[in-house]
Amino acid sequence: MNQYLGQSSKSKQSQTTISRRQFLSSSVATVAGLSMVSRLVADEEKTDLATNASKALIAISYDLEMSAGYPIKGKPRNAYPWDHQKGNLNDETKQYTVESCRIVKEAGGVLHSFLVGQVLEHKNVDWLKQIIQAGHPIGNHTYDHVRITAKNPNDIQYRFQRAPWLIKGKTPAEVISENIRLCELAMQQRLGIKPAGFRTPYAFANGIADRVDLQEMLLSLGYTWISSQYRGPSNVNHKNPTKADFDAFIATHKQHQPYVYPTGLIEVPFSPPMDVGAFRARSWKLDDFLQLIEKSVLWAIENRATYDFGVHPSVMYVEDPEFKTIKLICNLVKTAGDRAAIVDLGTFARRARQQYEKQNQKRAQQKSVNNEKCL
């Protein structure tokens, strides 16, 4: 009897264990399925937004790095060694980023950040995980904030001028490629995500149009779009911008719409004005900055175009501690109703790809018509 009870108990325990395993397996599959459905729904929504040419696409993007001359206004530009420690984010910058994401999320949008990999050496990255869990994308900004167009080792990053042994025996191209991959690896291991696009440190008037080698390198690394182009107007007044200055900035927005390079890589420019140029280089007041941002967003809405407000939280928490700029953008988009949406830069890239493919189809159709006429 005891032996029977023992076998029966063991059998029940085995059945219970199997049931639990089956339940857990089923639960995991269900969660995975729901996650996949969620991703598919999100992708479908992005495709719909990209396809809707009657809707303006507005992005708010942050470069998560420290900026020379900050956080204390009035200090000499070289008071902080953050050109060598770009990832050394202070708590204020982290908190400002988290709060900005919350504000944009409540407005129905997402905030697209680009991360310098050094940030992931910090002991605590819960603030980044919080952003990710809320649905905000994070892209690759290289590991050490390197200049990807550099052809001389001394031009890659100040850090390597101080410590040239870190890149000894490597070509600039090898260092740059490795730095991009290193940031991606750090994001995967520390945050459990793949980068949502790539933004080059620094910016280039023509993007990387004249560097086919870089386009091909980025494509080979798995990136379908990048953000590298920025061309603000020259000869703009310092401290007290005029209406003519604002008009000069607005005129540049047509040049900052996403497009496709001949290699197939998509360029997603970020739009003037940049915070560093406005506040550090020109010493603008916040009210002037707000006025230009308002004009820029309204231009995009009126023209059903794209506009990417790309700035640095390490600058903005000093210059705009009350989040007036992103609140303004959110309110303008809300007022626009169905005419505008706050989206990630991947949606910008989708629109560029769709427009590119439509143009190719039209060319192919026209070529076919012309061939038929010749026959």
TrEMBL record:
GO molecular function: hydrolase activity, acting on carbon-nitrogen (but not peptide) bonds
Pfam families (alphabetical): Polysacc_deac_1
Family matches, as InterPro entries: Glyco_hydro/deAcase_b/a-brl (IPR011330), NODB_dom (IPR002509)
Domain of life of the organism encoding this protein: Bacteria
Protein's name in the database: Polysaccharide deacetylase
One of the protein's GO biological processes: carbohydrate metabolic process
Residue ranges constituting the NodB homology domain according to the UniProt record: 91-206
